[in-house]
Design goal:
Among the domains are: 184 residues, Neuraminidase, CATH 2.120.10; 37 residues, no CATH class. It has 1 helix and 38 strands. By secondary structure, the chain is mainly β. The strands form 10 sheets. Strands 8, 11, 12, 16 and 17 form a 5-stranded mixed beta sheet that branches. A 4-stranded antiparallel beta sheet has the order 1-38-35-34.
C-alpha cells in the first residue's frame, strides 16, 4: 500500500511537471517593432486604449542625467496591426516619468515623478529660474491629464511646500510631487499612489569673504563650511557650494478620485503609513481592500532596511489597518493574484541586502503568508503580467550584483501558484549598433494585445559580460518583444 501511495505521488509529480513544461513550450517570443526613442523609467507610462492603440509616454533616454523626453518626442503610439511606432505629434512641455492611467472620461492621467526639486519654491514654470541661477528646479507639475483626441495637456501642480493635500501652487487640485512611488488603479477607477523616495534640494548658498574666511549664506544665515575652513582675500577665492540635498522617504498615500462635472481635475484624500517607505507593492484583493506589502525605509529590518510589515487599505473610508507580517522582509518585490484570490509575492531584496528567488503566498481566507516555490533566478524590480493560464514576472535586477539586469521571465501557474520555469527574453545581443547590443529588461513596461499576447517595450538593458550576465549601460532601449501563449 505504501509503495502504491509513493508511486501515485511520483506519477502526480511527473504529470504536473510534464504539463508545466508543455505550457512553457507553448510560449513564443519574437522581437517587435522598435521604438523611435530609447525610454526607461522605474514607472514607465504605457496604456492601451479601447480602439487598440498603444501609447508610451515620457521616460528618459538614459539613467545618467535622467531627463525625460518632452515636446513632440514625449509620446509614441503603436496602432493595429502593430508594425510601426509613430510620434503622436502632441507636444508635452513637462518631463514625465510616472505611470499612466485611463480615466473614466477617456483622458489619461500621467504622473511626473521628479526625483529632486525645491519644495519651497513658488514657481509654476518648469525648469531653471532664469532670475535665480542658484535655485534648483521647483518641480511644480506633479501630473498631467492628456486628451489624446484633442491633443491637449492639462497640468496638475504640487501643493505648496509639497504638503500632502495642501493648497496647490496653481489650480484646484494639488498632488504631491514624488518619485519611486507605487501606484495602482482600482476597479472603480480610483487611483492610489503610495510611498516615495527622492530629495528636497536647497538653493545654492551665496559665498562671502568675511574676516579672511569664506562663509556661505542662505535665507539670511551665513556660516562656514562644515568640513573645511576656506581662507580668502576676496570672494573669488571662495569655492562655490551646491545646495544641501535632503533625503525624503515618503509615508503618504494619496487616494485620487477622477474628474467629474463638478471637479474638473478630480479630488484627493491623504492618509499616512506608520513610517516612510518606497519600493513597496500594492494589489487589490477580491473583497475590494488593497494589500500593501514590504518596501524600504528608515525603520526597516537589517542593513538594507527592508520592511516585512503589511497593511490593508480601504480606499472608500480612507482607513489603514495592520496586516500580517510577511515571512521575509522584502523591497522591490512583485505581486500577482491567483485565480482563487490568493496573492503570490515573488523575489525582492531582503534585510541582508541580498536579492532572493523565494516566494510566498498570502491567503485572504487564512490571513497568513505561506512559503511558495522558489524561482530558479533571484530578481528584484520586476513586474507581473498575466499570459493565458500563466503569470509572467518580467526581467528585473539583482541588487547584490551591481544591479545586474535579468534577461529572463519567471513563469507561474495562475491557478495553483506553482513555479514552472524561466524563459529567456531577448536573443543574444547582436554585434554592431549600440541599441542592438543590449539585452535584458528592467524599468520597462508592457501591455496586453489580447489575453494571450503581451508587448514588452522600453526599459533599461545591459551588455553581456564574459559570464553571460547583463550589466546595465544605463541606456533606455528601443527594442520591444512580443510574448505569445499558444493554447
Amino acid at each position: 500500500m505504501e509503495r502504491l501511495f509513493v508511486s501515485l505521488l511520483l506519477c502526480a509529480f511527473v504529470l504536473f511537471h510534464c504539463v508545466s513544461g508543455h505550457q512553457t513550450k507553448q510560449i513564443e517570443i519574437t522581437e517587435g517593432p522598435r521604438l523611435n526613442k530609447g525610454r526607461m523609467s522605474a514607472t514607465l507610462a504605457s496604456i492601451k486604449r479601447p480602439n487598440g492603440n498603444i501609447y508610451v509616454i515620457g521616460g528618459a533616454p538614459s539613467e545618467q542625467n535622467f531627463v525625460p523626453h518632452t515636446g513632440t518626442n514625449a509620446i509614441e503610439v503603436l496602432r493595429p496591426p502593430y508594425t510601426k511606432w509613430e510620434f503622436s505629434n502632441i507636444s508635452v512641455p513637462y518631463p514625465l516619468a510616472g505611470n499612466a492611467y485611463i480615466l473614466p472620461d477617456g483622458r489619461v492621467l500621467v504622473y511626473a515623478s521628479i526625483f529632486a526639486f525645491n519644495p519651497k519654491s513658488t514657481r509654476t514654470e518648469v525648469g531653471q529660474d532664469p532670475n535665480n541661477p542658484n535655485a534648483p528646479d521647483a518641480g511644480p507639475v506633479s501630473a498631467v491629464i492628456i486628451d489624446l483626441d484633442a491633443g491637449s495637456v492639462t497640468p496638475i501642480y504640487r501643493p505648496k511646500d509639497n504638503t500632502p493635500c495642501g493648497a496647490p501652487l496653481k489650480g484646484s487640485l494639488g498632488l504631491v510631487q514624488r518619485a519611486f512611488a507605487k501606484s495602482i488603479q482600482l476597479k472603480d477607477g480610483t487611483i492610489l499612489r503610495l510611498g516615495s523616495f527622492g530629495y528636497y534640494v536647497d538653493p545654492n548658498p551665496t559665498a562671502k569673504c568675511e574676516e579672511s574666511k569664506c562663509v556661505y549664506c542662505l535665507d539670511g544665515t551665513c556660516k562656514a563650511d562644515e568640513n573645511f575652513q576656506y581662507g580668502c582675500h576676496e570672494v573669488k577665492d571662495c569655492p562655490n557650494k551646491e545646495g544641501t540635498w535632503h533625503l525624503q522617504v515618503g509615508d503618504m498615500i494619496e487616494i485620487y478620485t477622477p474628474p467629474t462635472n463638478k471637479q474638473s481635475l478630480g479630488t484627493v484624500k491623504c492618509i499616512k503609513m506608520d513610517a516612510g517607505r518606497t519600493s513597496l507593492d500594492a494589489i487589490q484583493l477580491q473583497d475590494g481592500r488593497v494589500l500593501i506589502t514590504g518596501g524600504w525605509g528608515p525603520e526597516g529590518d537589517g542593513v538594507n532596511q527592508s520592511y516585512g510589515t503589511t497593511y490593508f487599505l480601504d480606499s472608500k473610508t480612507a482607513t489603514l489597518t495592520p496586516g500580517p507580517r510577511m515571512l521575509e522582509p522584502r523591497e522591490d518585490h512583485s505581486t500577482a493574484m491567483l485565480e482563487d484570490g490568493r496573492i503570490l509575492v515573488t523575489g525582492g531584496t531582503v534585510g541582508s541586502g541580498k536579492t532572493v528567488k523565494s516566494t510566498e503566498i498570502f491567503s485572504p481566507q487564512k490571513g497568513i503568508f505561506e512559503y511558495g516555490d522558489d524561482m530558479q533566478f533571484s530578481r528584484e524590480d520586476h513586474f507581473s503580467m498575466y499570459l493565458g493560464p500563466l503569470i509572467m514576472f518580467v526581467g528585473g535586477e539583482v541588487a547584490d550584483k551591481a544591479d545586474q539586469i535579468r534577461n529572463t521571465a519567471a513563469f507561474f501557474n495562475r491557478k495553483t501558484g506553482a513555479y514552472i520555469s524561466p524563459q529567456f527574453l531577448y536573443s543574444r545581443p547582436e554585434n554592431g549598433a549600440l541599441e542592438a547590443g543590449l539585452a535584458g529588461i528592467s524599468d520597462g513596461a508592457g501591455v496586453h494585445l489580447d489575453d494571450n499576447t503581451i508587448l514588452l517595450f522600453g526599459g533599461q538593458q545591459g551588455y553581456q559580460d564574459r559570464d553571460g550576465e547583463y550589466i546595465s549601460a544605463g541606456i533606455g532601449t528601443i527594442r520591444t518583444l512580443l510574448v505569445k501563449y499558444n493554447p
